[in-house]
Amino acid sequence: MKDTWTIILEEIKNEIKNIDGPSMIWIRGSPGVGKSTLAASIANQLVGQKYHVISFRFNCTDSTITPSALWCAVVCDLAHLFPSLRQQLAQGDLGYSSSNIDWLFKSLIEEPLSALVDTIPCEELPVIVIDALDEWGGLRHDTPGKKDLQNLLHMLKHWIQVDHLKKLKLVITSRLEHSIAFPDSISIHDIPSGHGVKLEDSVSNDIRIFLQS
């Protein structure tokens, strides 16, 4: 809605534009507070400002949307954006298993980007928006599913530590869950709800605008 989310949107866009700022921006909050809407708004506004944006959303009702699907989608979009990366991938070993997410990440993203990132201005590098991280793997709660989540979190933590990878900004949304944690060096935006909303919060003003409308 017009005139809502203005403060948090401006803060996040400034963090994305700050080359020396945190490489990961984590938006956290309870179900229904608008994390996905906020992620979509960020992506749309960045595209409107001529940024390259790669968006991916997990879905608790679809068990096929896995960490492997995430990295395949990211590398596909990267290959469309950067012809030199596409050529490099085409010359590589394609005899891989999509279930091996360690291989997918290292061979299709980390290593190819090492030769690419330094040749591209930071403002032309894509912003990667990963929505609903807590909904990874659909409704899976089995042991392999939990291992997939641990591997995914490990790779995301690794992403923000590798010099050439952390030049690409990550925007992640999720619920507050004990199984999801990241280093203190990232930027965290908590969206309050219920009794957590204070009169001075920007969220309180957004609610007021909505009710008045």
Task: Give a verbal description of the structure.
With 213 residues, the chain is α/β, with parallel strands linked by helices. It has one domain: P-loop containing nucleotide triphosphate hydrolases (Rossmann fold, 3-Layer(aba) Sandwich), CATH 3.40.50.300. The protein is 43% helix and 12% strand. A five-stranded parallel beta sheet has the order 2-3-4-1-5, with helices on both faces. The longest helix has 17 residues, at 143-159. The protein is globular. The model has no long low-confidence stretch (mean pLDDT 88).
Mean pLDDT: 88
- What is the CATH first-level class name? Alpha Beta
The rounded Rg comes to: 18 Å
Shape: globular
**Number of beta-strand segments:** 5
Task: Assign the CATH superfamily.
Answer: P-loop containing nucleotide triphosphate hydrolases
How many structural domains?
A: 1
Strand content: 5-15%
Separation, N- and C-terminal Cα atoms: 10 Å
Annotated CATH architecture? 3-Layer(aba) Sandwich
How are the strands of the biggest sheet laid out side by side?
2-3-4-1-5
Helix content: 40-55%
Oligomer: single chain
The description of the largest β-sheet is: 5 strands, parallel
Q: Which structural class is indicated by helix and strand composition?
A: alpha/beta
Q: CATH topology, anyone?
A: Rossmann fold
Order of helices and strands: HEHEHHHEHEEH
* Tally of individual helices: 7
